[in-house]
Write a structure and sequence with these properties.
53% of the residues lie in helices and 0% in strands. It contains 6 helices and no strands. The relative contact order is 0.10.
Length: 146
């Protein structure tokens, strides 16, 4: 079977779409375009986020880790430069927990749980706390001395 130039082009495009490579390439191109626009001299005066406080960097890192885990490459390619961070600036889960003073349980990954810090933190907030059950005894009926 001999493919024409147009047929070959279509075959490669379909293969790139089906494997997810096209989405990743679009994401990378978008990221590079936004980064180059941010580096442009006429935009440098507006760049307020070049020195993010550690807490903000940790919060953006938590969100970026979640997006990476969910394979939201397009969103990452917009959020990363918009946040004023480069890929090398993203903190590890351990660094995030240290920066935000989170319990170590949110940072440690084991074989049973490979979820991002954000998911583990929210899951722990959703769990009902263990409360002690107590009874109140009064000689009179309940609420009569209110």
């Amino acid at each position: 079977m001999v493919l024409t130039s147009a047929g070959l082009h279509e075959h490669v495009a379909l293969a790139a779409e089906s494997t997810g490579i096209a989405k990743q390439l679009k994401s990378e191109l978008r990221f590079r375009l936004i980064r180059s626009l941010h580096k442009a001299s006429h935009l440098k005066a507006v760049d307020r986020d070049s020195h993010l406080p550690l807490e903000e960097k940790a919060l953006f890192s938590v969100i970026l880790e979640f997006l990476r885990h969910r394979r939201k490459d397009c969103t990452i390619s917009v959020l990363l430069p918009e946040s004023g961070m480069a890929a090398a600036d993203v903190l590890t889960p351990e660094e995030v927990c240290q920066a935000l003073s989170l319990p170590k349980a949110f940072c440690l990954r084991d074989q049973n749980c490979n979820e991002p810090v954000l998911v583990r933190a929210l899951a722990s907030l959703a769990k009902p706390e263990q409360q002690s059950a107590g009874t109140q005894t009064e000689l009179r009926g309940i609420g009569q001395n209110l």
